[in-house]
Amino acid sequence: MKIQKAAVIGAGVMGAAIAAQLANAGIPVMLLDIVLPDNPDRNFLAKAGIQRALKARPAAFMDPARAALITPGNLEDNLKNLKDADWILEAIIEKLDAKRSLWERVEKVAKKTAIISSNSSGIPMHLQIEGRSEDFQRRFVGAHFFNPPRYLHLLEVIPTPKTDPKVTETFSAFAQTTLGKGVVVANDVPGFVANRIGVYGIVRAMDHMVKAGLTPAQVDQLTGPALGRASSATFRTADLSGLDIIYHVASDLGKATPDDEDFTLTPAFRTLVEEKKMLGDKTGSGFYKKTKGADGKTKILNLNLDTFEYEDQGRVKVAAVDAVKGQPLAARVKALYAAEGQEGDFLRGVMNDGFWYAAKMAGNVSNRLQDIDNALKWGFGWEQGPFETMDTLGVQTVIANLEAEGRTLPPLLAAMKESGRDAFYAGDETVTPEGQPTKYEAPYFILTDLKKDATKVIKKRAGASVIDLGDGVLLAEWHAKMNALGEDQLRTVQDAHKLVQDMGYAGLVIGNQGENFSAGANLPLILAQAQAEEWDELDDMIKQFQQVTTSLRFSPHPTVAAPFGLTLGGGAEFTLHADHVVASAELYMGLVEVGVGLIPGGGGTKEMLLRFTDMQQPGQQLGATLLPAVQRAFELIGTAKVSTSALEARKLGFLRDTDTVAMNKNHILGDAKRQVLALAPGYVQPTPRQDIPTMGDAAIGAIKSALYGMHEGGYVTDYDLVVSGELARVLGGGTGNNRTAKVSEGHLLDLEREAFLTLLGKKGTQQRIEHMLKTGKPLRN
Prior knowledge:
single chain, alpha/beta, Rossmann fold, N-(1-d-carboxylethyl)-l-norvaline Dehydrogenase, domain 2, 2-enoyl-CoA Hydratase, Chain A, domain 1, seven-stranded mixed sheet, 31 helices, ClpP/crotonase-like_dom_sf, NAD
């Protein structure tokens, strides 16, 4: 049951996006749909699905070239081709008869080892396969993706009572490793896990909003990032999902669940869907509506649920949210749960509904508490699941509040009350849905779990730590805000190198499990030192930075970087110098220093020049091949190009062909550790290059000539010329040389540092840094 080829049936929004994710993972996939009558192109719908995925924003493809892995077809001419597929997934209309009819046809042509799946979000899996053979039923397992499949981590895997456990295990492993998904094994019940609990939460929030006299905008403030949930919160999420989808799912769940599970929609919501046909983003209006103001800027209007008219309410202020700004998540959750007034009443009502329902669903929608928590985190962007949130508040406190409201405790909470346990998770232990202690099974390598053992943290600073990953591998972990690079981060890497050598470790990983690998250098510190004219200190700091970044390549032991998310500026420079990189597929990597009036000063400029000059063709004249290499490095750095995926990072030159791309971000530290162990035997310490070819004034002149033309055309600003001139000087290997010459890495690093300091001393650069810190946007001065 190895999945090497796949087929997706149904080329709608979800089907085409799932096919794109398979292509992102390098899996050839057939995309089939029906034949449209009177359309000469029998594959029209499948081709349209591919084109829709190519145009999707955010992008469905990590690299548009991967679309070539999708073969369009139709269910009349190409059904027989399903015999070649190892996995067949349907994403057709949500009608039971249509699915049953499709499976009857598929069974006749699919090979006997193929795994068969449905992406249905609501139709129970066991109903779809009634009448099919035992062998077909044994290989059938639900696979419910969340939209958009590339970005939402959750995949609900839903075995039926007939599914072979080996099929569930094989498919789950494929989904986690190859497709990069967070797998939750759900029971085959209405709504499965995330939609069952998530839609219940949305419906109950609407009801409590009416009771508390709040507006949708106020509710979204209360149930968004302040509570550790996605910025789309409740009503923006409903608009994105489609109010008609929420309407139908809630209605279906209301019919399929007991009376105490209240999925009753408010009259206002029913009016929006049934009468007004205001269905959210798909119709251009729902709880919110985008419009353009007189100044041409986009404005968000809020729906008045009394008049059903849109209003410009400006910035909606919510006292309970303002009161917890800047506090850590645990403190915010506790304060919001205890808030007073209508805001507090609303929050306690919504949160208690959620706690009660999650506990009631334990053992029903899934057999593990952690699967319920992960489903809400991975499917809806929560920082904590409901059981983790109850742990934050204290389970016994939640139980007391539920009882004070007159609620009957679900069996899980009744068992927790009887045992006196105040947390569902404690160390490596959790509880079963019946409230009995059991071992906690981490879904992947979790750094915080490792750090619970104090002996694993070898050395700790405020913003970074050295951690023993086991098997002779150390980790230099950054854990500052946005992982901005300052003294703590640099010294921790130095600490880790020394420990590897002194204690006989095999090697080092640079990585973390924060929101981003690193957003770059500590700009406030750099600006403050420049304005204080502390040039000697700045020169020493940049030297140290260069020494630490290049130490990743020139240490006596292997060093592997594990970047993900934002990997900008200095974060990119660290990555560029590692012996090997294990990158998350979702990698947004770039040398973006020109945006603040600087150039890469930690070896990034040197490294890109070196990489591109090494690509020159043998047998050609050196100058003829050097100029394109210099121009490529200049364009990449001078435009602050940032990759939109690891696949694009490889095309741009940030990653080498030998570097590893992991689809699942949660696997990269484990993979990086394995790479260190693979490199360690016989590792030979590299030495800095002394033979990097440069073109001197010829390269500088060519770049400046192009720049002046762009300046005349209004494409670059006056200060862009200043910054670009310094960048050109470094890429040329310095001025005063009119012929090709070979220089050392050290020479280029000296030029980088000199250019960095020169620019930092200019008013234009300081203005750019100040503007970036104030607005988060680059200044075009």
